[in-house]
Each structure stands twice: as structure tokens, then as C-alpha cells.
């Protein structure tokens, strides 16, 4: 697994690199935002460990730009920061980060977070098909079939695309605006609350209890995220 470490403090960057390489990860370091974007394009890493406070482009801008690119491999992003306020965590996750770790942190916790990200979803890419799997769900994009516990789900095209978006980034928090961009793109005109309607419809088809959702969870003040233990 390839990991890109984006950290301007060399001692911290080297500590992260040494910690992860002891766990048999391959690591590269970028010291600022522009270098991070260049390294991302060249290396196509599996995970990016991204400091929030960087010279030039900050971590939020780097995260946003990475999520806007249509790369074959869309990496998991673990954001690092010395800040611990709730608002910073919300902002970081809403820009597309998958997880958030506050400095100072223990090397053991860092490794655990990286491994947790890599366990979230098994994504299989074949020559003619793409399949997402989590503990309870399988989504075959080539055959346009979604199943929960091996039972086929009767989903509309939009519901299928919504579930695909969630399953491709388990644990990521999506704002309504981001979901609209994924589902409708520039063709959307109207109230962004329409997303809530489609979330309710999808929940009725996949949730054991829609009053207490197990899989599609609301993140108050931000949006929605999908959680399901991986295989």
C-alpha cells in the first residue's frame, strides 16, 4: 500500500514515515500543498495523511482539489491538525476527508486509523466490471445489481447511484451539495433538500429500522455518511 504523507514539520513527517514503514507500508513525503498535489498525480497513493496547516495551499484546499479529480484510484484521506475544536473536524470531513486525527497522537493510534481506513471497503476492479463490497452489501456496477445479505434490492437508478456514492467512500461525510454534484452535476436546479427525500427512500429499502438507521447515518449540521463493517 502506498501512503503519501503531507506534513511541513520534518520531524513529524519522518516520525510518521518511520512508524508506517515498520508496518510494511511504502511512504513518500510532501512538505507543502503544491508538492502534495504533484505527488498525488504521480504516485496515485492509497492513503494520504494530510496536515491541515500547510504553507501555500492549506490541507482543506488540497483535500478539495484531490476530491475534484477523476482519478482511477481515489485515496482515503486522514487529516492531521493541532486543532481540536469540533468546527475544524466538521470542516475537514465536509471537504472530503475520511477521518481526522488531532496532534499530538500516538504512533499506535495512527497505524490503527490507517488500517481502519483500508478495511472500510473492498473495491474490486476488473476489466469489464467494478464491484463494491462491505459486510452486508454488494454493488455490481457492470450488472447494475445491488444486494443486502445476498437479497437483491429493488432500487431506482438514482437510488443505485446514491448507494454507489456512499459505498465507494464508507465513513466519509457527504454534504447535500456534494451529493447533488455526484447525482445531478450541473443539471440540478432546485432545493438541495431534495437529497433528504432520496435518502429517506433509500433508507426504506436498506435499513432494518428507518427510525434508527444502521447504515446511512445523519451527521447533524453537515450531511450523511455510510457505515458498514468491511469483509
Q: What descriptive keywords fit this protein?
A:
231 residues; alpha/beta; Rossmann fold; Arc Repressor Mutant, subunit A; 2 domains; five-stranded parallel sheet; five-stranded antiparallel sheet; 8 helices; 39% helix
Tell me the number of structural domains.
2
Structural class designation: alpha/beta
Radius of gyration: 18 Å
% residues in beta strands: 15-25%
Q: Write the CATH architecture name of the largest domain.
A: 3-Layer(aba) Sandwich
Q: Please, could you describe this protein's structure?
A:
The model is unreliable at 122-128 (pLDDT under 50). The protein is globular, with a radius of gyration of 18 Å. Strands 2-1-3-4-5 form a five-stranded parallel sheet, with helices on both faces. The protein has two domains: 2-119, Rossmann fold (3-Layer(aba) Sandwich); 122-226, Orthogonal Bundle (Arc Repressor Mutant, subunit A). The chain is built from eight helices and 13 strands. Helix 2 (33-43) runs parallel beside helix 3. It has 231 residues and is an alpha/beta fold.
